Amino acid sequence: MKTNDQLKLFVWRGPLTNYISCVMFALAHNVGEARKAIEEPEPGFEKVINWEKAGEPEIVEDVKGFFLWGGS
User: Fold this and answer.
1) Do residues 47 and 36 make contact, with C-beta atoms less than 8 angstroms apart?
2) pTM, to two decimals
C-alpha cells in the first residue's frame, strides 16, 4: 500500500487544446495518477488537455516555492 510519504507534486506548464497557456498540478504517486487526478473533477476536461503539448511534468519531491502572475 502506498503512503502519503511517497506523494510527489507533478507540475505541467503547457497549453490546452485551444492553445491557452495553463498550469496544471496534482499531488500523486506517479504521472498516470496525477493526470487522472487532474481530469476527474471536471467531466470532459480530458478533451481540453493536450498532454502531448504539455510534455513531461516537473516533479517536485523536496521543498520548493514558486508563483504565477499575469493573465489576460
Assistant:
1) no
2) 0.78
CB contact at 8 A, 57 and 11: yes
End-to-end CA distance of the chain: 44
CA distance readout (Å), 5 to 1, 9, 14, 28: 11, 12, 28, 10
Residue ranges of domains in the chain: 4-60
Residue whose C-alpha cell is 498516470: 32
pLDDT tens digits, 8-33: 999 998 767 777 778 889 999 999 99
Residues 6 or more apart whose Cβ sits within 8 Å of residue 50: 14, 15, 16, 17
Asked if 2 contacts 32 with a C-beta cutoff of 8 angstroms, the reply is no
